[in-house]
Amino acid sequence: MVKKRIVIALGGNALGKNLHEQMLAVRETAKAIVDLVEEGHEVVISHGNGPQVGMIQKAMDSLIKNEPQYGKVPLSVCVAMSQGYIGYDLQNALRETLLERSIVKPVSTVITQVIVDEKDKAFENPTKPIGSFMTKEEAQVLMDKGVKVIEDAGRGYRRIVASPKPVDIVEIDTIRTLLDAGQIVIAGGGGGIPVMVRGNRLKGAKAVIDKDFASSTLAQLIDADCLIILTAVEKVAIHFRKPGERWLSDLSINDAKAYMKEGHFAPGSMLPKIEAAVEFAESAKDRFALITLLEKAKEGIAGKTGTVIK
Ligand SMILES: Nc1ncnc2c1ncn2[C@@H]1O[C@H](COP(=O)(O)OP(=O)(O)O)[C@@H](O)[C@H]1O
Ligand SMILES: NC(=O)OP(=O)(O)O
């Protein structure tokens, strides 16, 4: 098997929805990642943070309601907190799994800041769902207080925040150096901490970047061969959950663009994954993206399952 440089973007099911679920889920996640390390691939791991950043923001808001002396915690800081505690669990699960298989490789989490454009139209039009799912009635209570909420891909209602596109990654040289030294890197967690450039200063932005887009940017900047997006489906489908549903093993860039126009991929769930996959696959010759289930990552990279976009 040809050794590849891979960015693995972990979806919600790789982390669970709360602290306890996360502790359990990352053990399985680590096994799937170490399977790829064992085959000699270089891996960088990125992950989502929708449920986690929503939980942190809610916790911080209720803290300052009772103890206002702490001051409001900006959303960018909540993203940084989510990177920290998810990275902590993930890097320890990876460390343990590597030791079990007698593989000597340091693992570290790089607190990653991602530059966004302050003129990005996304700041005027929040679209990124975060936090837990609510019923319509619960959502109405929040909406009455002026909180922006949407129905999230048929799964319930969630708060929404702005989600600008990633422009650049501040710590990219650190990530490259660690990778070139043969280490495993967790980076760009939760889409990265969104920051805006103000002269020598980086100012946190009130946003949550989509992890699939941040992963595509990361993969391009480290010249990865492959972007693997691990989620809750083994393959991508057209006519998903409708008559004529068809699961795809290969998806050309042109077909992906046509299917996006025809509305086959749900916004907020599969659509950003296909957009990110297409962006990466068309960024240079021989690059491809793979979308599959967490536990099928090894089979997917061997060409046995998943949807390959190239
Ligand atoms: N065309 C499609 N093909 C396959 N899955 C789709 C499609 N459209 C929407 N989905 C849904 O998108 C989900 C993945 O999005 P999501 O759960 O938001 O991702 P994440 O794993 O990053 O948390 C799948 O589990 C599936 O239910
Ligand atoms: N930041 C982000 O895209 O998180 P989710 O994948 O959990 O939505």
TrEMBL record:
Q: In which pathway does it act?
A: Metabolic intermediate metabolism; carbamoyl phosphate degradation; CO(2) and NH(3) from carbamoyl phosphate: step 1/1
Q: Name one GO biological process term.
A: L-arginine deiminase pathway
Which keywords are on file for this protein? Answer: Arginine metabolism, Kinase, Transferase
Which catalytic reaction applies to this protein? hydrogencarbonate + NH4(+) + ATP = carbamoyl phosphate + ADP + H2O + H(+)
What's the domain of life for this entry?
Bacteria
GO molecular function, a single term:
carbamate kinase activity
For this protein, the record's InterPro entries field holds:
AceGlu_kinase-like_sf (IPR036393), Asp/Glu/Uridylate_kinase (IPR001048), Carb_kinase (IPR003964)
One GO cellular component term: cytosol
Q: Which residues form the Aspartate/glutamate/uridylate kinase domain?
A: 4-285
Which Gene3D superfamilies does the protein's record reference?
Acetylglutamate kinase-like
Among CDD domains, the record links this protein to: AAK_CK
The record's similarity note reads:
Belongs to the carbamate kinase family.
Q: What is this protein called?
A: Carbamate kinase
